[in-house]
Amino acid sequence: MQNLFNRFTSHGPLFPRIITPVICAAALLLPACATPLKPQPQPVSQAFPPGTESDAWESLRRNLPKLESSSWFGIVDTGAEDLRWRLAMIDTARVSLDFQYFLWLDDAVGALLFERLLLAADRGVRVRLLVDDSFLSGEDPVVLALDVHPNVEVRIYNPYQLRSENMLVRYLDNLNDFGRTNHRMHNKLIVADTEVAIVGGRNIADEYFGFGTALNFRDFGVITTGAIVPALAGGFDVYWNSGWAFPVTAVDQQQDNVDDLRALRQELRARDSILDGWQVDAAAGLHDWSGEWAALGRSMLPGEAEMLQDKPHFEGPTPPELVASRVRGVIRQSDDEILGISAYLVPTPSLVETIREQNERGVRIRLLTNSLASTNHVPAHAAYRHHRKQLVKAGAELYVFRPDGLDRSQYEVPGFMAEQFGLHGKVLIFDDDRVFIGTLNLDPRSMVLNTEIGLLIHSAAVNAAVREAFAPNFSLDNSWRVEQDEAGELVWRSHDGVLTLQPAGGFWRRVADFFYGLFPIDSQM
Description:
Elements: H1 4-8, H2 14-26, H3 55-63, E1 71-76, H4 79-92, E2 96-101, H5 108-122, E3 126-132, H6 140-147, E4 152-157, H7 167-173, H8 178-181, E5 188-192, E6 196-200, E7 215-218, E8 221-226, H9 228-240, E9 245-247, H10 248-252, H11 258-272, H12 276-281, H13 290-299, E10 301-309, H14 322-333, E11 337-342, H15 349-360, E12 364-370, H16 378-385, H17 388-393, E13 397-401, E14 420-423, E15 426-430, E16 434-438, H18 444-449, E17 453-458, H19 460-474, E18 479-484, E19 490-494, E20 497-499, H20 507-517
Parallel strand pairs: 2-3, 3-4, 7-14, 11-12, 12-13
Antiparallel strand pairs: 1-8, 1-10, 2-5, 4-9, 5-6, 6-8, 10-17, 11-15, 13-18, 15-16, 16-17, 18-19, 19-20
Helix pairs in contact: 3-13, 4-5, 5-11, 6-11, 16-20
C-alpha cells in the first residue's frame, strides 16, 4: 500500500518542488492524456454545533481559567505530546471527527490514528476525512477501505484523474491539467465534536511526531477550545462542500468491499504495534481521558483568535492570497519585533522590501529556516540560497537550523532517533501580543500556489509561551547565524566556531543544491 518512492517523498510538498523543471520540459515533449477536471457538486454535510454531552469535555470546560476570553490555547511543542492529544480527541469524540490533511501515510503513526478513528466510528461517531491527492499514489486502497465503514466518509481534494500508482507517471499523465494540479491543499486540521481542535504544521506521518528512523522534524502546533473551534469547523465545511472534494469511490471508481476493511484493520494493527511500548509509557492507550482534559483546561492560555484560511478553488492563474495577504499586513503593523519560523524560506521582492522598511523603522526581525544540512527539500533550499544575502542586507537576523543541535533529543521519542533532523514549523511571533500558528511557509508555494490555514492569536500569554518554546532554536547551540564578514561574504556562526562554506551535510547535497540552483524555479518553491 505504500511503495518505496512514495515513502521517500513523504515529507511535505517535496514532489512538486523537485519535478517542476521535469514537468515543464516534459509538457513540451509528451502528449497529455487527462481531460481538465471541473468541480462537481457533492452531497452537502455540515459540522455539528458544540455542546456534546461528554464527561471529558465537561471536565475541560469546568477547569478553563475564569478570565474574559473567547478562546483558550495550549501550545503543542513536541510530536509525542501532539500525538497523545490527537488520540485523546479521537477517543473522547461522541458526535463527530473532521480531519483535513495534505499528507496522511499509513506508517506507524498514521496507522495508529486510522485505527483509533475506526474505533470511534464503531461507537457511532461521524468521521469525515479530507486528504489532498498529492501523496495518495500507492495508498488509494487504504482510503477506499476506510470509506467502507458506514460512519466514515473519505473525500479526495483536487484529485488527479489518471491514477497510476507511480507518482511520477501520475503527474505526467495529468500534464494538460497542470494549471490545476499544481495548486495543492496544504491545510492541516483536526476537529472533535466542534469542541476541540488542533492546528499547526504537522502532517500525519512518523517523522512529524518524532517517531521516524530516516527523518524527524522539529514541528509545532496549538490545541484550542472555545469560540474559535466552530469557526474552524465551518472552515472545514467550506472545503468539504466546495465541489473540489471528491468522494474516494468517485475518484477510484471501485465498489466498497467489507473484506477490504477487515483486512485493513489487521494491517493497521501490524503497522502500529511498534508504538505499543510508547502508548504504555505515555498512557496513550484507549481510556477515559477526563482527567487529562481537566489538567489541560487548568493550563490553557486565554486569548482571541482569527481563523485565516484560503479559498478552496482555482479560478484564474492563482488562488486568492488570503492568508498570505493578512500575514503581510500584520508584519507591516508590527512595531517592535518579529520572529519568523519557516521551514522553507523563499522571500518575494516585496517581502524583502517590507523587511528592509521595518528594519529602518527599528523593528527587529529574526528569521529561522532550514540549513542545507537539515532541509528535506534541497530544491527549496536552492531557491532560498538565491535570496539569503538580500535578507541579511535588508536587516534580518538570519538563523539556519542545525541537525546536530544540542537540544535535538527534546523533539525525538527515545528509541527513534533518525538519521536526519530538520525544521518543519510554521510560526510567526509579532511584538509581544500576537502569534500566527498554521501551515504557511514564507515561500511562493505557500503564499501563492497552495491553500493554507492558520490561527492569528491575539494574546500576550500565548505570545510569551511560543516565544519561550522557540528560544532554544534561535540559540547558537542549535542553529547557525548567517552573517556578512568584513569583505561582504556570508559566514555561518555557531557555538563551536565560524564556517565560511555553508553547512551542507554531505558532498552530494552540495552538488544537488548547485544543480537545482541553475533552474528558474523560485516561483514554484
